[in-house]
Structure formats: structure tokens, C-alpha cells
């Protein structure tokens, strides 16, 4: 018998087709339903991108208006979701809270087990609309602050920031947040999306698939990297008002030491892109805008010091999590909240994939090459 070929980590394996997004590592490009992601980030709101990922086309004016009205009316968190969050200890990670919140939102849904396309879309829209309230609720509870109700007069990003911080964010901050949401929205068969598709392939419900995807996203090799990036910055030391060159010099030394100790530095490298993540230039521009807005040149110093030292030593480039982490830090989010922000964005891509998987389903069940003991018997 010929030995089966093993593709460790499924690296290089094409598992299925998808029309949701196209990642092209050769040209470093990422298309959502055909549109380059940087064009979308420059021109439309995250709400439009959500619609695009679900429906395959950007919304017309009347569709966009109808969708915004629906989204704004579905933002409030159910009382039992708040109660479930309150039961969780502050010592647990916000990703655990996010996972629990989605699970309870699913349990509440009257059409939880109805997987018809109309019902799946309805659930996707409602989850997209309500999830930010769970993140904001948890961020505020961790700071001992009262929750803030959503505002229907604000767009998705402005309202997210309002519910979290209780003040209206400056337009450039809203823009940077909107950009991050669009860039995080979708990325083909990454680990969490594939998890969502595996769960969907068993005919389980949409909220189970999203809950499982959150578990996959939590890890530092995937979504958890945006949080880990900030831990690196914190370990090096963030010194407000330090000249950027001094911060960069300290960051370079830190990176040289880390690489000498063969450490993996989070926020760098990518399984698919080998010449740079297509999303980084757009997110870096958003970070630059935030550095300018908040007057925090030392953050840019740390960023560029680490990036240059990694480039010189290993020619490994940053991924999206690298500029996203410090951007969220400057906006005022606690570091542990960064990956839940990623969820808020990726709910759109996950649910688009869940619907695509559902429409042409085949149970995902690979084989394993057994390498345990030969058959043996009890004495
Ligand atoms: N820091 C240091 N060295 C690295 C890094 C890194 N971040 N990434 C890759 N390398 C090195 C490895 O040590 C290895 O070197 P070697 O051949 O000398 O042993 C080589 O590059 C190949 O690394 P692999 O881990 O085999 O590459 P793979 O394609 O499997 O990994 C991954 C991709 C997991 C993303 C990896 O680059 C990594 O661990 N990065 C840090 C985590 C991270 O930032 N994840 C976010 C992903 S993007 C996202 O979720 C938005």
C-alpha cells in the first residue's frame, strides 16, 4: 500500500471553491467579491462591505438605507446576554465573553434551527448588529463603568466607539476604525473561517459555527496576534513623548534579542502571503493617521524599529495584526479587547462562508494516517 501524503497544517491544500474573497499571494492582493479591499476601505462604510460579502454586490442606495435601518434597530443586547456576561469573572479573557455572548444570542433566536437562506441572512444581520454592544458592555464592565445604550443616529463604527467610550469619536478616528473593520472582515479559508465551515458542514446552526470560529480566532497564531503585538510594545515599554528615533532604537534592540533567542514575534509572517500582507499598507495609513491625531510619535518609533529589525534579520513582513494592534491601543481599547474587535469584523466573512457552505454542502471529514501502536490485545 502506498503511504498517504500528509499535508501538515493543510498547507497548500485547496479544500473547496469560494466566491466570497480571493487572496493572491503573488500580487499581494485581496479581493472581496472582486473588489480590491483597499478600494473598499477608501470609499465605503463597513456596513456596505457586510452587504457585499453576503449578497455578492454592493447595495443600491435604497438597499443600503434599508439595511442601515435594520442594523440600527437590532443593536441592543438582550437582557439575558447582559446577565450571562455579568456571570463571567473579570479574570476571564474577553474572547471567552465574546464566545459566550454569541452562544446566548444564538440560544435566544426563534429561528436558530432554521437554515433556509432567508433565515440565515436574518441571523447574520442581527448578530452583526448586536455583537458590538457585547464588546462595549464587556470593555466598560472591566473598567467599572455603566453600560451605554446604542445610538440609532450614528453609523456602525461611530456607534461602536460611542458605546465603548461614551463620547463621540472624531471623524478621523471613526474612519480608522471603519478601515480596520473592512480589512478584518474576510480572508478566505483562514483557520477560523475553515472552522465555521467545518461546523456548518455537519448541518449545525449558524451561531454554533460562529461560536466555534471564535475559539479558533482566539489563538495567538491567528486573531490573538493583534493583542500579542501590543504585549510586545508594552514589554519594550511605551514612553509617552519619547522621540520616535529613541523608541525605534529600543525596539530594534528588543527584536535583535528576541530573534537571537529564536522567538516567534507576533504580528509578523503569514501562511499565505510571503511578500507582505495585502492589507498592511491600508492599515498602516490608518495607524499613521491615529499617531498624528493623538500626537503619539513614540508608537510609530516602536512600530518602525521592530519592522526594520525583522526585515533586516529575517526578511519577514508584518501582517494585518501588526498595525491594527497599536491603532486600537491609541483609540483607547484595552489590549485584551483587540481580538473581540476582530470578531466584530469577521462575523461578516464567517457568515458569508457559512451560507456558501450551506448552499453546496459536503461533510468536511479528512483522513488521518495512523502512527500509533500496531493492533494488540488485552492479556
Ligand atoms: N517571528 C519569527 N520568525 C518567524 C515568524 C515570526 N512571526 N513567522 C515565521 N517565522 C519563521 C519561522 O521561525 C520559520 O523559520 P525557520 O524556517 O528558520 O524555522 C519560518 O519563518 C517559517 O515559519 P512557519 O511558522 O513555518 O510559517 P507558517 O507559514 O507556518 O506560519 C504564521 C505562518 C503561523 C502566521 C507564522 O508566521 C507566525 O507564527 N506568525 C506569528 C503569529 C501571527 O502574527 N499570526 C497572525 C496571522 S495573520 C491574522 O490572523 C490577521
From TrEMBL:
Pathway: Carbohydrate metabolism; tricarboxylic acid cycle. One of its GO terms (biological process) is carbohydrate metabolic process. It comes from the Bacteria. The active site is at 270, 321. One of its GO terms (cellular component) is cytosol. This is Citrate synthase. It catalyses: oxaloacetate + acetyl-CoA + H2O = citrate + CoA + H(+). Belongs to the citrate synthase family. GO terms for molecular function: citrate synthase activity. The lineage of its organism: Bacteria, Bacillati, Actinomycetota, Actinomycetes, Micrococcales. Keywords: Transferase, Tricarboxylic acid cycle. Pfam families: Citrate_synt. It comes from Arthrobacter subterraneus.
Amino acid at each position: 500500500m502506498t503511504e498517504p501524503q500528509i499535508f501538515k497544517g493543510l498547507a497548500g491544500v485547496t479544500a473547496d471553491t469560494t466566491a466570497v474573497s480571493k487572496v493572491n499571494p503573488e500580487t499581494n492582493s485581496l479581493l472581496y467579491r472582486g473588489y480590491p479591499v483597499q478600494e473598499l476601505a477608501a470609499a465605503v462604510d463597513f456596513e456596505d462591505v457586510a452587504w457585499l460579502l453576503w449578497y455578492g454586490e454592493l447595495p443600491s442606495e435604497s438597499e443600503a438605507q434599508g439595511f442601515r435601518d435594520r442594523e440600527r434597530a437590532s443593536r441592543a443586547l438582550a437582557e439575558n446576554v447582559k446577565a450571562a456576561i455579568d456571570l463571567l469573572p473579570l479574570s476571564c479573557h474577553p474572547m471567552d465573553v465574546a464566545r459566550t455572548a454569541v452562544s446566548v444570542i444564538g440560544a435566544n433566536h426563534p429561528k436558530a434551527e432554521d437554515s433556509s437562506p432567508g433565515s440565515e441572512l436574518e441571523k447574520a444581520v442581527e448578530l452583526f448588529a448586536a455583537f458590538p454592544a457585547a464588546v462595549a458592555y464587556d470593555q466598560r464592565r472591566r473598567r467599572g463603568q455603566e453600560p451605554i445604550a446604542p445610538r440609532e443616529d450614528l453609523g456602525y463604527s461611530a456607534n461602536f466607539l460611542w458605546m465603548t467610550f461614551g463620547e463621540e469619536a472624531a471623524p478621523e478616528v471613526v474612519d480608522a476604525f471603519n478601515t480596520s473593520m473592512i480589512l478584518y472582515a474576510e480572508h478566505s479559508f483562514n483557520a477560523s473561517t475553515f472552522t465555521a465551515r467545518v461546523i456548518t458542514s455537519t448541518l449545525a446552526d449558524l451561531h454554533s459555527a460562529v461560536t466555534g470560529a471564535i475559539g479558533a480566532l482566539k489563538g495567538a497564531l491567528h486573531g490573538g496576534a493583534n493583542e500579542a503585538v501590543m504585549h510586545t510594545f508594552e514589554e519594550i515599554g511605551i514612553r509617552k513623548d519619547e522621540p520616535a528615533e529613541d523608541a525605534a532604537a529600543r525596539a530594534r534592540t528588543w527584536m535583535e534579542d528576541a530573534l537571537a533567542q529564536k522567538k516567534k514575534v507576533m504580528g509578523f509572517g503569514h501562511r499565505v502571503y510571503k511578500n507582505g500582507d495585502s492589507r498592511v499598507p491600508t492599515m498602516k495609513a490608518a495607524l499613521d493617521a491615529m499617531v498624528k491625531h493623538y500626537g503619539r510619535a513614540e508608537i510609530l518609533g516602536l512600530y518602525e524599529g521592530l519592522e526594520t529589525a525583522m526585515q533586516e534579520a529575517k526578511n519577514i513582513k508584518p501582517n494585518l495584526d501588526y498595525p491594527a494592534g497599536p491603532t486600537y491601543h491609541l483609540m483607547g481599547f484595552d489590549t485584551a479587547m483587540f481580538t473581540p474587535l476582530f470578531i466584530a469584523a469577521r462575523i461578516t466573512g464567517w457568515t458569508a462562508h457559512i451560507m456558501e457552505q450551506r448552499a453546496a454542502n459536503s461533510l468536511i471529514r479528512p483522513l488521518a494516517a495512523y502512527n500509533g501502536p500496531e493492533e494488540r490485545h488485552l492479556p
